[in-house]
Amino acid sequence: MNVSATLNFFRLIRQPSLCLPHAIAPTFNDLPVPLTSAFGGLKPDIRAVVLDKDNCFAVPKEHAVYKPYADKFHAFLTTYSPPHLLIVSNSAGTTSSDPSSREANLLSSATNVPVLHHATKKPGCGPQILEHFLNAKDSRVTAADQIAVVGDRLFTDVMMANLMGSWAVWIQDGVVLTRNPVRCSSGSGNEKGVIARANCDS
Fold first, then answer.
1. Other C-beta atoms lying within 10 Å of the C-beta of residue 146
2. What is the torsion angle, in degrees rounded to the nearest 10, for the CA atoms of residue 83, residue 132, residue 158 and residue 150?
């Protein structure tokens, strides 16, 4: 159970705009690299990028990058090489789901990208992400608004970015389409309703 998501859900009742992304891409392959151009007329100073794993750039429960996304992932790795790139997953690196860090180590080995080890699942691990970049040698990150978070879930990835004061980039269609309303893929049609409601209530 994701206690962090459950507790933060009540914050959405008071502030639904927390689930609004700053940029939207149909799939991982549609992301511009560098990410600065994803935000329309805005030109944020993006110095570091956080990538979700499951259904973002990899098939859930697998460690390798989804083959059709390999070139795009390589572009991220080249442009935002560690320490400017970090994978944050609720299935790898969490003390509850991955206490031995086995999944995190396998994922890091397969992608050549560090995986955050965190006690609190998304959307509650924002402070640990910021701490990671602030302490990483040569990351050049000095504030949360220099970080972009890329993920396919409105209520974890996008909400976490907004809670951090970072930039949220939402992937509409994951590697595997799902009708899970928490993910809100375009395959379900739910995301339009969620975003429209947030726009009306914010």
1. 19
2. 10
> Residue 183 in contact with residue 36, Cβ under 8 Å?
no
Q: How many CA atoms lie within 13 A of 94 on its CB side?
A: 17
74-98 pLDDT, tens per residue?
999 999 999 999 999 999 999 999 9
Alpha carbons 83 and 48: distance in angstroms, whole number: 8
- Both tokens of residue 45? 């100073």
Cβ pair 161, 168 in contact under 8 A: yes
118 contact partners, CB below 8 Å, separation of at least 6: 88, 93, 94, 95, 125, 128
* Separation between Cα atoms, residue 63 and residue 105, nearest integer Å: 10
Determine contact, residues 123/155, Cβ cutoff 8 Å.
yes
pTM recorded for the entire structure: 0.85
How far is the C-alpha of 96 from the C-alpha of 112, rounded, in Å? 23
- Of the listed ranges 4-18, 40-54, 57-71, 154-168, the least confidently predicted one is 4-18
Number of H helices and number of E strands within the chain? 6, 5
Distance, in Å, from the CA atom of 177 to the CA atom of 190, rounded to the nearest integer, reads: 13
